[in-house]
Amino acid sequence: MQIGMLGPLEVRTDDGGSADVPGARLRGLLVALALKPGHVVPKASLIDWIWGEHPPADATNALQRLVSRLRKALPGAVVEGRTEGYRLAVEPDAVDAVRFERLVTAGRSRTEEPPRRARLLGEALGLWRGAAMQDIGLRESAAFDAAVARLQELRLTAAEERADAEVALGHGAEMVTELTDLVAAHPLREPLVAALMRALAAAGRDSEALLVYQRTREALADALGVGPSPELAALHIALLRGELRQGPGQREESRKTNLRAELTTFVGRGADVAAVRGLIAEHRLTTVIGPGGSGKTRLATETARTLLGDLPDGAWLVELAAIGADGDVAQAALTGLGLRDTLLGGAPKAELADRLIAAIRERDALLILDNCEHVIEAAAVFAHRVLGECRRLRILATSREPLGITGEALWQVEPLGLPEGDASPDEIESSPAVQLLRDRAGAVRRDLAVGHRTTMARVCRALDGMPLAIELAAARLRTMSI
To answer: Which residues form the OmpR/PhoB-type domain (predicted)?
Structure first.
């Protein structure tokens, strides 16, 4: 005989037929015995299960009458009487709820490999045909209600555990629909939310995972007045850091920088790169200062590019030129780091720095704050706080003036070296300013002759060796003669 209670009550006989068990109390008695297959259930427990706090005056006789009716409804002599109670003589696996618990216990064991865990938990969940004991209806039985709640809770736990096992096997995308439905039904259940976030991240749908977190945070605040648990918050941070994108057995090479590939060669600043590298190695905040057009940004990015192999979490350019004088440096940093702050639930600006710090707190990275001069105070406050809370982070800033923070190292960018007025042809040719002009001019004019050296030196002197001015002059040679 097979007894199913994970859904409508179902009793299957050995010959493939079904047995009818009519009435809530008779069904309740069968379920109480079936949950303890092969074990004697005390009469007091059965009375409490069936009648709750309002048993009849002759409860023992009433129970005996129910047992008699149940024996007639079931095939064979499966209901056995004992002095202390009654026993259902069936194998444990003949009861779907008991088998479900056995499979879940085995599937949750961390000693099992993910493929076997996923199979066991999937088999357990496959036993469900609806809500547990949905057509029993013992209205005043606290014991019955507790058993139903326990099975439903175990079902949700099994779903969470199975989702984790499937994600570990690289099947996250296949779990998204099922988990989305479960989260919709149980929006405050954080382990389910965590399972859905992992499945979405494994499927490459990070933005949706962030939205799931945001909705859960709002639901918890509205319904309970609390925030997400530390575990869910930690998962959110891991998602922001991109740590959930790696699938099983595969180590995806994470993007380590947002520095763009340059279209031109880097000329004349080799010594500066070496010097700035040295400052970064010794100081957590280095600021490259100089007038506009002196090449601060290019020096910073080229220096950072040489450090990529030494930075486990990469180098990230934060472009501040585009934000207004009252712009938010933290928001620009979130954008530069690719953390998609617009998906963080439209948090007030005051929260953005907190979220950024949470995401990068343990990163061993270089942050390049470019063009700080028009937001110098905000950039200084931001750098001071981030460096104070992110111990492994370093900042390389570019500005026309220092940030003015204790511990800041400065590197003054000088104009490119110019040839003297009486310089020899070889000295002119080796001058950094002339090298830059020749390199850029050669890209637009193929007919530049060696005899132009003196003229090129004169042009570079007139432009004071400023890289931007030299590049603009070289671009004009497309339509002008030298």
So the answer is: 1-90
